[in-house]
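Entry 14. Ran structure prediction on the chain below.
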Amino acid sequence: MALRRTRLTPAVALAVALLAAAPQAGAQPKGKAPAAAPAPSGAATSPTAATQGLSLQGAPQIAAKSWLLVDVTTGQLLAASEPDMRVEPASLTKLMTAYMVFNAVKEKKLALDARPPVSPVAWKAIGSRMFVDPAKPATIEELLRGLIVQSGNDAAIILAEALGGSEQGFATRMNREAQRLGMRNSNFTNASGLPDAQHYSTARDLAILASRLIDEHPDFYRMYSEREYTYNNIKQPNRNRLLFIDPSVDGVKTGHTDAAGYCLIASSRREQPGQGFSRRLLSVVLGTASESARAIESQKLLNYGFANFDVVRLYQKDQPAANYPVWKGAAREVKAGFANSVLVTVARGSGDRVKGEIERTQPLIAPIDKGQRIGTLRVRLDDKVIAEQPLIALEPVAQGGWFGRAWDTIRLWFK
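Output, structure tokens:
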């Protein structure tokens, strides 16, 4: 079958003309060796400018070793500097620990009211703790809040042992899960983020992880917006300062060691006036010099993203984009569209440089299944393909009768 290229209608072309795109966060080379660690806490960190993504002139200077800003709504990278530098993730590691526990609960491998035992290793955990009493084990739900809000290393170890048998066994599972998610430049040796020469990740990989966690576990993700948590009569605040100063921020996680510096993954969700949907941005800031710096630099990135980029909805989920002729079918046409709403991020002022086209399978011959790919929406910026979206059949088309199929066969000979 040949492919027939069809220009979009003027109305659709005008909408697509607002599009701009960037490389997806999952496509990056694997580093050859761990990068140098960020500056120790208290040391000055030189500002770095955006080097990748849709970043515009005037992108902010960020005082961090490595950073990234992504639009979670569309999956597009907006700006980044050294996103593939291997760094010590510190307590950002606990995002993977939580994600795996969320999966286990969803798959009914763990129950929220279960009370796993507190091993001597967990009880003697160093660093931040939720202070679990071995004589009164906490539930999985309590441990999750202790892990997320209080950043408890004891909670991380208990959860790891409950799911992996041991923290080492859990780390093996963490690495297997990282590969499944496309985190190609990460390696985990523990569940809490305590320093280890072979324990590392990147801003890009952490953005992949955080985005998947938000998308796949919205109910559990609400825990990341909790400003404090009390367990064992000990109240501890969430270390994410943005939760207290920006009402649109609802997560995600802080991290700190002397080698890693101060780190923060932050996410903000804001309504788009007149658009009928909200938009979510995610920033990853690694290796700042202080607790206040990580909050300031993260807020700077989020504000930059909302001020300089917009999300445009081109098509609604399951809404027909066009009707196309079908050969040898019980119906003469099939409705075509997209499995999900087509949302794209555009840099303000770049819309007139974007063109879109649909390349569809030709001829379309029945039977056709609902959801079957029958073409591709391609978007070009200055004659360069910058985004693609599968075009699918929104309805099935059964095979036609014998006479109709025979007649269409003859017609195709002359087409």
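The longest helix spans residues 291-308. Will compare against last week's run tomorrow.
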